[in-house]
Structure formats: structure tokens, C-alpha cells
């Protein structure tokens, strides 16, 4: 099989795995990845992560023109905003994942560092996650808000909506968005229980050891 055929299969397999584990339901969520020729493969509009068809993914060329496949997700501006501002982005995943949405509704949520420092992996895989405000679905201002970060964040949380995460490749992006949801779940599970998170020194040690983008 060609590299592109393998990538199509991988996108659909990872999306189905997330769907089966309840990380995004119904026809929510969207996913995209760079192809070797600088183009993109994108989940089509209205599709379910549980049933993506490798042969019907939207395919864009390197100039951003839709070449074939079904029409892309309506949340395409979010994906483009990451690719245009982060040269290292090889894939972008967006979920409507329950615990991260719940955490975004907490009135004391930290806009500049959405995930509390509970485990090293949330820090290593995501860096500092930016909490963006609520936008109406399909509002192009969502993409503008990501562009406003000038590529300094690999992960954002759309309040009352869901996370959007970029990674160097499709597996890295999926691993990172799963870590975001797991950390949000831990935060919600332990909320009000006075949990012992990582200390600022421990956070800094993780950032230094694993060369995390943290202070941007
Ligand atoms: Zn969405």
C-alpha cells in the first residue's frame, strides 16, 4: 500500500478507537493529517469517528485546494489555523470529550493554563493549554483565536465545546488529546477533595527534562 493509503487507514482506525472509548460521540469530532506531498487528509462534514471511510476523506493539495473526497468538516478553519501557524504540525484532532468540557465550565478555570498540573504526562504531551472563550459553532473567529496565539500553543480548549490539539503526526496528536481528556477527568474526579498536584518545582523539572514548550 502507498504511504497515503496507510495514512488513510490509520486516521480511520485511531478515530474509531476514540469513538469506541467514548472520547467523542455521535457525529462530533474531526481529524486531519498532512500527506507527504504537503497536502491534507480531513474527516468529512457530518461524519462519525466510529465510521470514517478511508476512501472518502477530504483531500487537499499543498495549496489548500480540495482535490477529491467528500466536503470537509465545518471546523476546517480550526485545523488550518494550526497548520498555518505551527510548522511542526503534522496532524490536528478535535473532540467533544466530556471531562475536558466539564472542566472548561468551572468558573475558576485558568485561561492561560487550563489543565491543573496533576501528572507529568499532561505537561509533557501538551505544554500549557490555552482556554479559549465560547464561540458559536462554525464561527470563523475560532480559527482567528488560534491564529492569535501565533503558533505558541499546541493545544487549546474551546470553552463549553471541546479540545483541539496539534501533533507532529497523527499518533502524537491523538495521544496528546487523550492525555488532555485524561487529565481533565482526573481534575474533575478529585475536584473539591484537596488533591496533591505537582509543585511548581516539580512542574519546572518536567518542563526542563522533557524540553516542553511552556513559557511561550
Ligand atoms: Zn466541535
Secondary structure elements and pairings:
Elements lengths: L2 H18 L9 E5 L5 E3 L15 E3 L5 E3 L7 H10 L5 E4 L3 H7 L15 H7 L3 E3 L8 H7 L7 E4 L3 E6 L2 H20 L10 H10 L7
Parallel strand pairs: 6-7
Antiparallel strand pairs: 1-2, 1-5, 2-3, 3-4, 5-8, 7-8
Helix pairs in contact: 1-6, 2-5, 3-6, 4-6
Question: Can you give a write-up of this model?
Answer:
This protein is α+β, with helices and mostly antiparallel strands. It has a single domain (about 5-210), classed as L-fuculose-1-phosphate Aldolase, CATH 3.40.225. It contains seven helices and eight strands. The chain has helices at about 5-20, 75-85, 100-105, 120-125, 140-145, 170-190, 200-210; strands at about 30-35, 40, 60, 65-70, 90-95, 130, 155-160, 160-165. An eight-stranded mixed sheet has the order 4-3-2-1-5-8-7-6, with helices on both faces. About 40% of the residues are buried. The structure holds zinc ion. Zinc ion binds near residues 28, 75, 94 and 162.
From the structure above, extract its key features:
eight-stranded mixed sheet; binds zinc ion; L-fuculose-1-phosphate Aldolase; single chain; 8 strands; 37% helix; 216 residues; globular; alpha+beta; 7 helices
Query: Could you report the average pLDDT, rounded to the nearest whole number?
Result: 96
Bound molecules: zinc ion
Backbone structural class: alpha+beta
Number of helices: 7
**CATH C-level label:** Alpha Beta
Largest sheet: 8 strands, mixed
* Overall spatial form: globular
Distance between the termini: 40 Å
- Tally of DSSP β-strands: 8
CATH topological fold name: L-fuculose-1-phosphate Aldolase
Spatial strand sequence of the major β-sheet: 4-3-2-1-5-8-7-6
Q: Topology as H/E string?
A: HEEEEHEHHEHEEHH
CATH homologous superfamily - what is it?
Class II aldolase/adducin N-terminal domain
The Cα radius of gyration reads: 17 Å
Q: Could you say how many structural domains there are in total? A: 1
Instruction: Write the CATH architecture name.
Output: 3-Layer(aba) Sandwich
The helix fraction, in percent, is 25-40%
pLDDT < 50 runs, ≥5 residues = none
User: How much β-strand is present in the residues?
Assistant: 5-15%
Amino acid at each position: 500500500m502507498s504511504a497515503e493509503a496507510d495514512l488513510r487507514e490509520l486516521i480511520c482506525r485511531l478515530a474509531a478507537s476514540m469513538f469506541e472509548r467514548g472520547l467523542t460521540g455521535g457525529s462530533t469530532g474531526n481529524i486531519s493529517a498532512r500527506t507527504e506531498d504537503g497536502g491534507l487528509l480531513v474527516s468529512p462534514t457530518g461524519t462519525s469517528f466510529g465510521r470514517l471511510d478511508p476512501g472518502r476523506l477530504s483531500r487537499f493539495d499543498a495549496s489548500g485546494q480540495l482535490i477529491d473526497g467528500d466536503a470537509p468538516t465545518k471546523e476546517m478553519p480550526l485545523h488550518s489555523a494550526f497548520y498555518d501557524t505551527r510548522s511542526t504540525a503534522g496532524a490536528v484532532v478535535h473532540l467533544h470529550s466530556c471531562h475536558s468540557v466539564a472542566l472548561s465550565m468551572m468558573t475558576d478555570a485558568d485561561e492561560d493554563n487550563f489543565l491543573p498540573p496533576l501528572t507529568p504526562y499532561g505537561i509533557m504531551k501538551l505544554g500549557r493549554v490555552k482556554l479559549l472563550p465560547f464561540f458559536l459553532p462554525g464561527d470563523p473567529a475560532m480559527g482567528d483565536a488560534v491564529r492569535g496565539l501565533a503558533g505558541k500553543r499546541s493545544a487549546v480548549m474551546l470553552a463549553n465545546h471541546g479540545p483541539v490539539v496539534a501533533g507532529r503526526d497523527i499518533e502524537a496528536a491523538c495521544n496528546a488529546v487523550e492525555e488532555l481528556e485524561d487529565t481533565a477527568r482526573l481534575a474533575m474526579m478529585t475536584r473539591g477533595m484537596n488533591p496533591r498536584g505537582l509543585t511548581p518545582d516539580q512542574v519546572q523539572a518536567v518542563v526542563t527534562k522533557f524540553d516542553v514548550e511552556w513559557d511561550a
